[in-house]
Design goal:
Blueprint lengths: L1 H5 L7 H9 L7 H35 L9 H32 L11 H4 L3 H4 L1 H8 L2 H34 L5 H41 L4 H12 L2 H22 L5 E4 L4 E6 L9 E7 L1 H12 L4 E3 L1 H10 L4 E2 L5 H18 L16 H8 L1
Helix pairs in contact: 3-4, 3-9, 8-9
Amino acid sequence: MADSDQEKTEAATPRRLEEARKKGQVPRSRELNVLASLLVSGCALLVLGPMMIEGIRKMLVRGLSFDHNLAYDAFAMSEELWAAAIATMLLLAPFFLLMCGVSLLSPLALGGWLFSTDMAMPKFSRINPASGLMRMFSVKSLVELGKAIAKFLLVAVVVVMILSNILQDIITLPLLELDISLKHMASLLILSFLGFSIVLLVVVMIDVPYQIWDHQKQIRMTKQEIREEMKESEGRPEVKMAIRAKQQEISQRRMMEEVPKADVIITNPTHYAVALKYDQSGSGAPIVIAKGKDLIAAKIREIAKENKIVIFSAPPLARALYRSTDLNQQIPENLFVAVAQVLAYIFQLRQAAHSSRVIPHPPTNIPVPEEYTSKEQA
């Protein structure tokens, strides 16, 4: 039993996940970021490529066809070089800005942005040779080494395949006219891009699930850790207050849902309200299905008015029922007579509403045992 408690077999709790995130422990996949950059750069080249190729062509034509007299004018040559540099930056700026944006946004796909001061704090274990050797020969390091070798071999095979197919075309590029050479070079780049994208896509499909699984495995908890965390969380005063407030809210909501089922609401009339329900076909006594004071009493009266439930003002009886009876419990025997008079009046009102009978007068001098009134005075 003790061994099973020490094994990390339980999924991490939200609190553990938050603590791990503060320490910089989130799933990351470098290959996913590289793939995102590659795909966006490829799409950008498809859209911006013609414009960039045309700009490069114009710069090459201008750079190779300047007046030879300018070669003897240092000031003119520096102006030409400066103009060429500005033109190059303006030409490539949209592409580089887009790549910077991708580099900033791609981490959102897995793990999100994270700035952890814990990772920046100096730790002796990072410079400890023994700890370094343990990390070097750990299972995780061996897995990372295996992944790196597998990725290298996969990329190498694809590179060899692509180069073997386009090597002859690359050799013949200088022999072609400038426009044709640039267009042919662009088609070769697109072919290479597709090959590398497929390779990286395969790597990412394997790496991302592995990184998520490995992260969840690292932050797993033992059963004892979960029990200690629950004790610590529940022991906090603010947590207890929040739980108690939530329980009261749920209880009040359920109680308010029962108010429309009441036969009568007996009130103080402003400070107390007690909702009674009586099943005439049953043998039990009336039941208190809702009660409250001040704001809760006002809410009970409001719901009663919306559902056309009779509100009967009997201050001593309302206080006696409120103090003597819990929710969903029968009223005390010594209050049967008082409540019976009220219910008889309510049933007479219902009969009068469905016939031509005279509306009865409400009962007066409802008998409330002295023990309840004496408690009020005390």
